[in-house]
Specification:
The strands form 5 sheets. The chain has a 5-stranded parallel beta sheet with strand order 3-2-1-4-18. Strands 6-14-7-8-9 form a 5-stranded parallel beta sheet. Strands 10, 11, 12 and 13 form a 4-stranded antiparallel beta sheet that branches. Helix 5 packs antiparallel against helix 8. It has helices spanning about 1-10, 20, 30-35, 40-50, 55-60, 70, 75, 85-95, 115-130, 145-150, 155-170, 185-190, 220-225, 245-255, 275-285, 345-350, 380-385, 390-405; strands spanning about 110-115, 130-135, 175, 195-200, 205, 220, 235-240, 260-265, 290, 295-300, 305-315, 320-325, 330, 335-340, 340-345, 355-360, 360, 375. Helices cover about 35% and strands about 20% of the residues. By secondary structure, the chain is of the alpha/beta class. It folds into 3 domains: about 1-95, Orthogonal Bundle (Fumarate Reductase Iron-sulfur Protein, Chain B, domain 2); about 110-205 and about 345-405, FAD/NAD(P)-binding domain, CATH 3.50.50.60; about 205-340, 3-Layer(bba) Sandwich (FAD/NAD(P)-binding domain), CATH 3.50.50. The site of flavin-adenine dinucleotide has 40 residues, from helix 9, helix 14, helix 16, helix 17 and helix 18.
Length: about 400
């Protein structure tokens, strides 16, 4: 707490706060810091929660280096103010104590399909407004990537449980272990009397490398592995292919659960990696090794055959990546984890008439209307793999659209 007060004291309370301007949900950073310094933790928590119901989570998992932290004016000459740590402290405490008020039942019912950041936000905002909300979740816990993707050592599951308790307090009915699509279709939900449907089902199909050997017993997709890393026996040496945050989480989890040697293998240089600098730093600190300029050619029972790559610049100054001829070499390993992005599963779409998609993603307008009357969508299933805060921002807007639609 003393450290946090010291940190708060370093904030310059800028008139045009760049931290706030670069926050996707426009968090009132200086106002919250001022209240925190005055000891008004509850008031500060309220401002954060009313603006972002997942504030306690975003304070931990947002790519802060691109947002508040990376844009703090203090960071130009010294260390930026770590507002995220202050937000995490306030929001955790506020969430534990909070009892959410809601309006009386207004007679309308909404089905929320998927309980990730988008679904949680929509369910909470609509339940507060008096809608009868039923949440359908294919897993036995809510949270989506927060529970079945981001490792527990990065995000305490208690925070998701606290959110779940708030939803239950608000009267949201949660149907666990329930897949919407093949048997319970969206059309069936509509004919059962739900007045609107919110779809926030995320992206859960791994993209493949399209090389030989991806189905071998020791090859796994990161998105599957991260659902329950404890159940895998990866062996001593693990190769992770990819360079985004999912690859970092897979590599760090492999190390955390006992692998001795873990390599992130990537076909370009570190500057091209899409993972945040913070995640790359953590992975290195934990002993993950980075093997760069290696492109996978084939997965064999003994490991992965990689070709060496190189960036070359042509006469016009354009750079491109080329494979060095005859450079193929086996990198022996016990397990391979493939982490090269995700796409949506087609459950919802294949079982529903009239829902249009593009590249597998649901097509919506800016306000979240899909091509089917009464059906709305947002989050990764619309935008493709993005961030927690992007899903929350979109779900705030789409909940308002649902409210407008149902009040017509
Ligand atoms: C490993 C990993 C690490 C990440 N780390 C970060 C990070 O540190 N910071 C960050 O900001 N972002 C991170 N992201 C991205 C972020 O988590 C997502 O952008 C965000 O979770 C998207 O929210 P969503 O609600 O759209 O989808 P999801 O979180 O994917 O939730 C979708 C939910 O829908 C359920 N569902 C799917 N289909 C059906 C169906 N047919 N019927 C019923 N339920 C269904 C799923 O089980 C799931 O619970 C990470 C992603 C991954 C995969």
């Amino acid at each position: 707490m003393e450290n946090l007060l010291f940190e708060a004291g370093r904030c310059l309370k800028c008139k045009k706060p760049r931290c706030q301007m670069h926050c996707p949900i426009y968090t009132s950073v200086p106002e919250v810091i001022t209240l925190f310094e005055e000891g008004k933790i509850h008031e500060a928590g309220q401002i954060l929660f009313e603006n972002n119901p997942l504030s306690a989570i975003c304070a931990i998992v947002c790519p802060h280096e691109d947002q508040c932290l990376g844009n703090c004016i203090r960071g130009i000459k010294s260390e930026p103010v770590r507002f995220c740590d202050i937000e995490a402290y306030i929001s955790k405490q506020y969430l534990e104590e909070l009892t959410i008020e809601k309006e009386a039942f207004n007679g309308k019912r909404v089905a929320v399909v998927g309980s990730g950041p988008a679904g949680i936000t929509a369910a909470m905002l609509l339940a507060k407004k008096g809608y009868g909300v039923t949440m359908f979740e294919l897993h036995d816990r809510i949270g989506g990537v927060l529970s079945y993707g981001i490792p527990e050592f990065r995000l305490p599951r208690k925070l998701v449980e606290d959110l779940e308790n708030k939803l239950i307090q608000l009267g949201v009915s949660i149907k666990y272990n329930t897949l919407v699509g093949p048997v319970i279709t969206v059309d069936k939900l509509l004919s059962d009397g739900y007045d609107a449907i919110f779809v926030g089902t995320g992206v859960w199909n791994p993209k493949t490398l399209n090389i030989k050997g991806e189905t071998l017993p020791h090859a796994h997709y990161a998105i599957d592995y991260l659902k329950n890393p404890k159940s895998y026996r990866l062996g001593k040496k693990v190769v992770v292919i990819g360079a985004g945050n999912v690859a970092m989480d897979a590599a760090r989890s492999a190390k955390y659960y006992g692998a001795e040697e873990v390599h992130i293998c990537y076909r370009r240089g570190e500057e091209s990696m899409t993972a945040t600098k913070a995640e790359i730093h953590e992975a290195k600190e934990e002993g993950v090794l980075f093997t760069l300029y290696k492109s996978p050619v084939e997965i064999t029972p003994e490991g992965v055959v990689f070709a060496t790559t190189q960036t070359v610049t042509d006469e016009e100054g354009n750079t491109k990546l080329i494979t060095v001829p005859d450079s193929e070499e086996l990198m022996p390993c016990d397990s391979v984890i493939i982490a090269v992005s995700q796409a949506p599963k087609s459950n919802i779409v294949s079982g529903t008439t009239g829902l249009e998609t593009k590249y597998g993603l649901l097509v919506t307008d800016e306000l979240g209307h899909t091509t089917k009357e009464g059906v709305f969508a947002c989050g990764d299933v619309v935008s493709g793999a993005k961030t927690v805060i992007a899903a929350v921002v979109a779900a705030k807007k789409v909940s308002q659209s649902i409210d407008d639609y149902l009040q017509m």
